[in-house]
Inverse folding.
């Protein structure tokens, strides 16, 4: 399969010229190693993976000898298996002014991030890679930031070809794991079967110390059934026959492994009676549709959960966009005790950009009236709108538009 250029490459190259070490995290199989190997082509960079047991044991038992054997500049894959290396990496970084000496990948956040922060503060840049976005699949990489003004969206519309509902749901159903891009329905199912059995179930034992894999699988499937909804730990606990604290720990474990994303609720002193429960989304909609037993694109597209999957897809596309962009943004959702909800708040440069997400070609324009609650609370409001299945960008008022989902 030909290499698919990743949006994160730009940011990685920038950080590599500034930091002595760069760590790329993300779920298994999203393409971390492939991207870094591609960037290392035609260079003298050593490659080593800690999935190799013999190499891992050397790294764990004798970090000094490890780096005599495998000299920088180096790409170390799955570095979370040997946190003993971080102290040695710190020493080597401090002996030189050279940047880009250590390229690291890791699939598990918890213990690794603790060691990284303790050992390599100020010496390391950290990035997260997700599975392929819809833009990456099409080979459309846009350097300009996501601008929700009508003119900003017009600019994107000129660059991105039209898509219809079947193409959108093909992307949602298939997901963005690079290895399933050309797989047929049978092979795709076998891939995700193997992904859950060989990677996920092994990692939950190694990282989370989970001993009952069958109960964990029940929780995982319950999460998929509740995607794009507020996390209800009691419901998840009941589904897996575990306690609520255990359900919470296991969801946190899935978040650390890059499987799920928890969208936090917005909080502001000017807004009263806001909920405090996050909403749960899957970082890869293909894995979520597999776990939910949507076996074909059309059954998902026409099924009862299609709206939830469409919302999941839009939120994760936004997450990917800002993970790779020059400017960081905070993503939230809004909900108060009166059940008034706005799907996404994007907090960027002091402004809040409100977005509703509707799996409809012609949603009700009155949805944007809810956004006035920001004005009443004196929160600076930026441009926003309704992300939907419309074919063309259409203005609603001076601040909001109907935004085709392909533009996100």
């Amino acid at each position: 399969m030909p290499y698919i250029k990743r949006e994160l490459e730009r940011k990685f190259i920038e950080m590599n010229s500034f930091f002595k070490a760069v760590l790329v995290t993300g779920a298994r199989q999203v393409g971390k190693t492939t991207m870094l190997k591609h960037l290392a082509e035609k260079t003298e960079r050593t490659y080593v993976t800690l999935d190799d047991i013999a190499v891992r044991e050397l790294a764990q038992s004798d970090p000094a000898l490890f780096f005599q054997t495998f000299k920088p500049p180096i790409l170390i894959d799955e570095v979370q298996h040997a946190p003993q290396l971080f102290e040695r990496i710190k020493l080597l970084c401090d002996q030189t002014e050279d940047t880009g000496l250590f390229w690291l990948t890791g699939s598990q956040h918890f213990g690794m991030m603790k060691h990284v922060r303790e050992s390599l503060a100020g010496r390391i840049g950290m990035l997260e890679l997700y599975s392929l976005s819809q833009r990456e699949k099409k080979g459309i990489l846009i350097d300009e930031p996501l601008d929700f003004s009508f003119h900003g969206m017009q600019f994107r519309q000129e660059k991105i070809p039209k898509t219809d509902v079947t193409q959108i749901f093909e992307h949602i159903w298939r997901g963005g794991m690079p290895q399933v891009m050309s797989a047929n329905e049978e092979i795709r199912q076998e891939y995700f079967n193997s992904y859950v059995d060989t990677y996920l179930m092994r990692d939950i034992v190694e990282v989370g110390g989970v001993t009952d894999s069958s109960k964990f699988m029940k929780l995982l499937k319950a999460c998929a059934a509740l995607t794009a909804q507020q996390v209800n730990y009691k419901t998840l606990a009941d589904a897996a026959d575990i306690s609520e604290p255990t359900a919470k720990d296991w969801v946190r474990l899935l978040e650390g492994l890059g499987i799920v994303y928890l969208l936090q609720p917005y909080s502001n002193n000017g807004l009263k009676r806001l909920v405090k429960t996050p909403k749960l989304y899957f970082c890869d909609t293909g894995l979520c549709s597999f776990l939910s037993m949507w076996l074909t694109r059309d059954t998902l597209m026409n099924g009862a959960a299609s709206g939830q999957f469409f919302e999941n897809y839009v939120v994760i596309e936004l997450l990917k966009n800002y993970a790779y962009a020059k400017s960081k943004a905070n993503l939230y959702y809004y909900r108060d005790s009166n059940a008034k909800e706005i799907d996404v708040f994007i907090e960027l440069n002091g402004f809040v950009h409100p977005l509703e997400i509707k799996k409809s070609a012609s949603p009700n324009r009155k949805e944007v009236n809810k956004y006035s609650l920001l004005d009443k609370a004196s929160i600076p409001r930026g441009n926003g709108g309704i992300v939907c299945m419309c074919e063309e960008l259409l203005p609603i008022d001076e601040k909001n538009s109907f935004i085709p989902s392909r533009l996100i």
